[in-house]
Give the backbone structure.
Amino acid sequence: MKNKLFIQALGITLTAALLLCQPISGGFMGTAAAPGSGSDLLIWHDTPAKVPIDVKDLYTWAAEASPIGNGRLGAMVYGGVGNETLLINEATIWSGGPGASQYYKGGNKGLPATNKMQLNLLRQRLQDTGDGAMSWDTESALRNYLAGDASTFGAYQELGLLRISDNPLSELANMLKNIQTNTSAPGSNYQSVEKLFDGTNSSKWCYPKVPSVADPIWISWEYGGSVTADSYRIVTAEDVVARDPKSWKLMASNTSGGPYTVLDEQTDYALPDTRNALVNFTVANPMPYKYYRLEIYAIKGGDSMTQMAQFLPLGDFNRNTAKPPETPYTDYSRSLDLRNGIVTVKYTSNGTRYIREYFVSAPDNVLAVRISADKPGAVSSYIGIESRRQNGDAGVSGDTITLIGQPDDQRTDGLHFISQVKVIPEGGSLSNASPTLRLQNADAVTILMTVGTNYRPCYDDTYDYFSDRETSFTAVRTRTAAAAGKGYTALRAAHVTDYSALFNKISLTSDGIAMPAKTTAALVNGYGSGNNANEDRYLELLYYQFARYLLISSSRGEEPSSRGEEPSSRGNEMSAASRSLWSWGMTQLNQGSHADGIIAAGKLAQSGNLLDCQQPVMSYIRSLAVNGRTTAAHYHAKPDGTNVRGWTAYGATNLWGYTAPGGYTPGFYTPDSGAKLALAVWEYYQNKPNKAFLEQNYELLLDAALFWVDNLWADADSGKLIVNPAVRSQPYGSGDHAVIKRLFKAVTDAAAVLGKSGDATVAAIRAADEKLSKTDARAGKTWAETLAGSSGNLLSVSNGLSVYDNYAAGAAMYNQLFALPGDVNGDGYVRIDDARMLLQHLVGKIMLTPEQLDRAAVQESGKITVSDARLILQKLVGKINKFPIEG
């Protein structure tokens, strides 16, 4: 008997023989992994995760910690024993936008009339030269007139760390905060003023200004309480000696705004020319102060910038001391149960067995942690919030810690956040150890955490994204009280019911596959070489369901209009599908949503029978279409110079309705991103036909197509309509023409459904479609080949077939979630000889090492990357009319 793969969608079971492995006997083998769990889908570890020291470590969080989330609130559980850490994020905490600049207008830059004139001059230049070369004047036009203003694009901001420790969290009382400066945002958030105080040499503060005594650079900050600095440290940056400061004063006060006492003054001091050199300076009369200020009057000279890697006051409050002793433990396990969306940590310490449970509830929008022990009075901890934002202030009232603050660059009328941590003990005592709570000798404890902001979606061109702060804060306090009143048991039951209703829409299992008695890390490390066949196949099944888990946890059903939710935008990478919620590293410029990533998340929703998780995406696209009208009118014109109709958007988007081109890079110019987003709406309708939905979104689809009817260029050489200019920076990227072709067809098909085929606008789209070129484009820049004149295919994939001709089968540019080996058959289905290999690629590859990817034999030559997982599943289980079947 051959093993069988079962793919079950809402009670419909489909089977296909797997061709590689022999039957494996035996039952469930999970007791060694997570004792007593009873689940067969566990991502589990036998050690706590390593907590990253440097916030620029983008990968440790994904490789080791356990993610939980509900689409708005997310956490990474590290599972420490004596010192537990949860990284907490909320989807609407962003820097930049209108809260950073009152002049924010979605990135649109320059004068529309000038931009349009320069666009048509560039088009004609590319038409006349015909070679697509990046001449100096071409690049100048792109940089100066077609790029956007990303200076206040902003970035995702982590909220902070929920800390649960056996030891006093005394460092939280004196945390540095409220950093201010008279220098505006630098060219990169990697070089912002906060980098002076991050304690690492791998980052720096850099600002393009030469200070003077009359016009110094000043930086001020404060601590949670009065602290005594007996010295301070400067570390030079990694480059450009001339940027080092040479004259400065360090001052302090116990009153906000001064007057200040001078603690140390240096004039014409020669910092070492050695890079990343550390120099300590002594404070003459150390005294406790709460407010500090650094003024820089001069640099070494010969450069227009000032920079340092570190500036760090030192004293007993922050000088390195011996760490508290580690809590001893044995028999440890940390597991994420994909069946119920709950993380469980178990361990034995000093003869007591402890169990912790963690989940984030979508129905109640709350993070819940429960800690219990098998002996009475054995639960004692210090509980606190370590803010990742400098403008965050925590206070204790009764059994609740409240953290209030703003992203570091926000004005007082910008974005504000509030977080509450409520501690509910069973037995024992709870006392105020401000800014923490101290729990002693409880039998068990429930910790509830809620987070909210005054962000609200904006569906017009006012860029007004802020509601009343106090009203928003009251809503969070009300939610905290409601969750506490409901109790842990009821919260858990509601979470499991809600989550399971989505997760159980597909059951992917196989006869004879037993859960291995290996940690997930061991399975990944042994994949393809050290594992047996059962272990490899179990890991493949686990990957697919883990991808679905992440999407459920990062993009939930209610639309942003009702909950202020940003959709998951990173679904093209399985373990990063929810990076907007869980990443340590989303603090740099331009780390926002991306059109291709949003579309890829939609593909996962379709292939995983999770179209409910696309509803926030649909609303998000509708909001972008409003601002996209402004961008279309600002940067684009018909060949005769008059205004285009419709809307468009570019590749990078954010919480603040950014639809303009990004700042200039070789591949910034992607006006086809609006068409891709419109196609995502059409594909949602195709997977879940609903005429009312189509009517609601028809104008969005129509106007995305009319933009291209007006924006195409009539090529004098071929007589065809082409994209001009066409800028590409990625190899094997699908061309604009393929996207436009699909959009035109989608709109004409939608018009037929709604009885609008006879409309003049639809006739104009059909006429443009007939004239659209398959191959020609006028290129300003390409990554690997020239795309101008009549030089052949617009772009080609590795099997030599035009992307235009094979777009229906998929292309790497548009969805990288499912990369499969094999050929494209004439009927558009994938022909694969090895069903096990197919499944391996279906479920994803993000956690595999490069060596393991090599063994997977994903080759460019002779193979094609297929974007639509439905095609693969159709081939595997037999041709079916529609998969998944959405109820």
The chain has a mean pLDDT of 76. Residues 533-554 form the longest helix (22 residues). The chain is about 25% helix and 25% strand.
